[in-house]
Amino acid sequence: MRADALKGHLDLLLLTIMQDGPFHGYAVMEELRARTDGTIDLPEGTIYPALHRLERAGLLVSSWSEVNGRRRRSYSLTPGGKKAAQEKRREWSAFALTVQRVVGAPAWPTMA
Amino acid sequence: MRADALKGHLDLLLLTIMQDGPFHGYAVMEELRARTDGTIDLPEGTIYPALHRLERAGLLVSSWSEVNGRRRRSYSLTPGGKKAAQEKRREWSAFALTVQRVVGAPAWPTMA
DNA sequence: GCTTGACACCTAGGTACGCTATGTATAGCA
DNA sequence: TGCTATACATAGCGTACCTAGGTGTCAAGC
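Predict the joint structure of the above. Result:
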């Protein structure tokens, strides 16, 4: 997967994953990799700054903990984050559908 | 449509449109707008630099002409551009499908 | 004991790209 | 005369992802 294809859609992915409960940064990385069979395999230098950005934006909150001698920073969705996740999903659908129309790809059933 | 959602996908759109014959920059703008019912309405500051970039990359060639007293720069796909268009379409399909899987959106029939 | 790898975090700097703002010029219409 | 549409161009901005490097813990292998 060309990496920078993500541009502008990483937030959608992160917020979506966060909907399934708190994750710490490293776990988000693994979760993304797992859900996509390794297709999306983001470096730490992408994940961590993105999480910080989303927290600064008020969409996530973090809390530190220690597990097995290793410190972890776990993130959860704020109410604003939940709304943003839905909104971004809508935006994604609209975007993908539109691109689909231009490239004349398979009709995408709008059973969204 | 959030503007920067396009990041990394603009080339796909431009090359795809170019498959339907030569267009000059302004016409590409209108074509994109028309094919998407105005959803994708790109400013000139996006279109022209992108076309220049694609020409520098050897995917397009341009030729000047004059129509109704106005000079036009028409672009056509090179053989490399044709290949790139197909390749980018494949990449888009893979990308969109993968995102789709993560966000758990409507099953996308893979009749691509 | 030492090394390697997985786990877990961080950030400075580079790069690429789309957009804003602005400029040029012609044609047509009010 | 001025406005709108057509048609081109680019300098500079902002953002976001990545590269490359750093810190530290723990477990396994040699």
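Residues 17 and 28 of chain B are 7 Å apart (CA to CA).
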